[in-house]
Amino acid sequence: MIRTPLRPLARILEARQKGENPDAIERENKRIRHEQMRDASRQRAEGRLLVLGVFFFCAFTVVGARMGVMATTDPTEPRAAAPGSVISATRADIVDRNGNLLATNFETHALYAQPHHMIDPQGAVKKLMAVFPDLNEERLLRDFTGKRKFLWIKKKISPEQMQAVHDIGEPGLLFAPRDMRLYPNGSLAAHIMGGASYGREGVHAAEVIGVAGAEKYFDDYLRDPANGNKPLELSIDMTVQAASERILYGGMKLMNAKGATSVLMDVHTGEVISAVSLPSFDPNDRPHAAVTGDASDSPLFNRSVQGVYELGSVFKIFTAAQAIDLGIATADTVIDTSGPMKVGGFRIGEFHGKNYGKQTVTGIIVHSSNRGTGRLALEIGAERQQEFLKNLGFFEPTPFEIVEASGGKPLLPQRWQELSTVTVSYGHGLSSSPMHLAAGYSAIANGGHKVTPTLRKQSGPVVGPRVMSERAAADARAMLRAVVTEGTASFAEVPGYQIGGKTGTADKPGPRGGYLEDTVIATFASMFPAHDPKYVLIVTLDEPVETSGDKPRRTAGWTAVPVAAEMVRRVAPLLGLRPTVEPDSLADITLSSSN
Amino acid sequence: MRTVLYILTTFSVIGLAFWAYRENYATQQALSDADDLRYEIREAYSRLAVLKAEWAYQNRPDRLRDLAELNFDRLNLLPLHPDQFGSIDQVSYPPLPELPLFEITDGVDVSSMEAPE
C-alpha cells in the first residue's frame, strides 16, 4: 500500500516559494486521510452488521423451522432411551393373591373403512355382510357410497374375521391395532373386576379405561406406564371365589331366592378373600346398565356393597358386646324379656309373638329376643350406641376399593331417639351392606380391633384402633357359638370347623314405604373356627323361600344358614384350615392355694 | 514452523472429521440394532402375554370343573374335603428296599504266592 506522505516535499517547497503556510498542506492531507479511515471503518462496521444480521436471520429461521417441524410431526420416543427403564404401553394386569391372572390384555384389531379408496364399494358391502351378518347392510352401503371419508365398522374383530376381511382384498378396508381387556375366567369375580372400555380412539391405538369395579377404582395405577409389568395384586383368592360362587348359586336356586351375596373376610387384615354377588355377568361382555325398573334387579348391581338393607337380628350381637364392654351386663346377667314393652308409643314384640321370659344375655342372643336386646340398648343409651356403631364403620360407605362401594352409604335414622335406639339394637331402622356387617363381625372375631375392608393384598396383620375390650369380644364369640350349638343356626354345625354366628331375617321395605308381605332378606353372619376365628363369612339371600316342609319357610335359619355351612365345609379346606377339635372350656381349678 | 503447524492442524481436522463420520454411522447402527432388539422383546412380550392369557383361559375354574366331571371315571377327582387333611404320623414310610444277597457258589482262592517280585 502506498501511503501519501503528510508533508510531500514537492508541495512543501512549492508552498514555501509562494510564501504559504506549509502546515496547511499537512492539515489538509490529515483531513483527507482521516476521511478515508472513517470511510473504511464504517464500511467494515456495516459489513460486520450485515454478517451478524445474516447470522441471526439464519439462526432464527432454523429455530422457527424446527419449531414448525416439531409442531407438525407425530411425537416419537427418543431412540436412545436410558438402559434398564422398562416402559410398557399396555394396561397392567390384575392378579389374585396367589398370582393367578384375573385380567390381562390381548392384542386385537379394529376394522375401519376409507370409502374414497374403495374400488368396488357395493361388492365390499356384500362380502362384509358375509363375514359380519350383524351389520346393517343399507347403512353400510349409504356410508360407503356417500361423502364420508372415514368410518369405524367394528371395534373388535377376531384373527379369523381379520383374515376373512383381508381376503376381500378391498384397499379401502383397513385395520387398526387395539389392546383388548380380557378376563380369562369369564364371570368369575365379575363385580370386583367391573369391566373396561375404550376411551379416546385413534387409528394407531386406543385408550383402555376401566368403567366399573376395581378396574375403575385403580384406573390411575393400571394406566401408569411405569406399572406395565407390575400387576395389581388383589386380596381375592380365585379358587375360593370360584367355589363360593358355585355354592352360592346352588343355594340361591335351592332356596328360590332372586339374588344372593356372600363376603368372606380375613379378620386380622380386613382382606376380602371372596365377594360374590348373584346374579352375575361376564365382564368381557358387560351388559348395559338398566335405565328402568329397580336397580337391584340388574346383574350389574353389586349386592355385597350396594345392597343396603336392614339386616335384622345379626345386629343384636353388637348390642350385647357393647353392654359387656361398658360393664352394664355380663354374659350371665339375667334380663326379663317378657312383654309388654312400649317405647315411644310403639309395642316391641318378638318373632311370632313368643315370650322368652327371664333370660341371660347369652340366652337373649341364642333365642334372638328383640325385647331383651332392646332393654340392653336402653341401658346403653342412644349416644353411646351411635358412637359404638360409628367406630365399627356403620355410618360411612365402606372404603372397599371398588367404585361401587362409595355408593353403599348406610341409611341411618333421621332422629336417633329411644325408639331408634331399641330398633337399631335388633337391626331395624339402620340399613347397611353385607360388607359393613363383615367388617363389624371381624372386629368381634379379632378381639376388638376395628377392621377396614380392603381389596389389596396385605403383607401382614393390620391392627386398627380398639373398639371393644378383649373380654367383650371373647364373650360375644362364645354367644355366637352358642347360637349354632343350641339356637337358631343349628344347621351351621360343620364338624371340624366350629362356626359361630347369628341369623337375621328382615322384611324387605316396599317401594312406597312400609314392609312387603312374605319377602325377606335372610342373613347369616358367621365366623370360624369360633374359638380362634380366622375368617368371617356373611351370606345373604334376597327373598328366599324354602318349600320342603308343609309351610314355606323364610327364616335365615332355614335358608341362609345351610348355604353358609356348605360354603364353610367347601372353602375352609381350600383356605388351608385343618379341621380341629373344639377345646373344652377349662374347668375352674385352683392352680395354687394359699392359707 | 508455522506451515508445519497449519499442516498438522489441517490433518488433525480431517482425521477428527473422519472419526466423527464413522462414529455417527456406528451410533446409527447401534441405535437401529437396539431398536430391532426392542422390537423383538416387544414381540416376545406380546407372545408371552398371549400364552399367559391362554394358560389362564385353559385353567379357568369352570373348565377344570367340567373336565374333572367329564373324566370322573378315570380320575375320580372330587372337591377337597376336610377329612383329607392328615397328620404326618399317618404317612407310612415306604418299605426299606431289601439288600441284595449273593450266595457264594464259586469261590476263588486268592494268594500272592506266585506274584512277581
Automatic annotation (TrEMBL), chain A:
Keywords recorded for this protein, A-Z: Carboxypeptidase, Hydrolase, Membrane, Protease, Transmembrane, Transmembrane helix
Top-level taxon: Bacteria
Biological process according to GO: cell wall organization
Transmembrane domains' residue ranges: 49-69
Entry EC number(s): 3.4.16.4
Penicillin-binding protein transpeptidase domain span: 261-549
UniProt keyword annotation of Zinc present: no
Compartments reported by the entry: Membrane
GO annotations of cellular component type: plasma membrane
Enzyme class: hydrolase
Residue intervals of the Penicillin-binding protein dimerisation domain: 87-223
Protease is among the record's keywords: yes
Protein name: Peptidoglycan D,D-transpeptidase FtsI
Lineage of source species: Bacteria, Pseudomonadati, Pseudomonadota, Alphaproteobacteria, Rhodobacterales
Automatic annotation (TrEMBL), chain B:
Protein name: Cell division protein FtsL
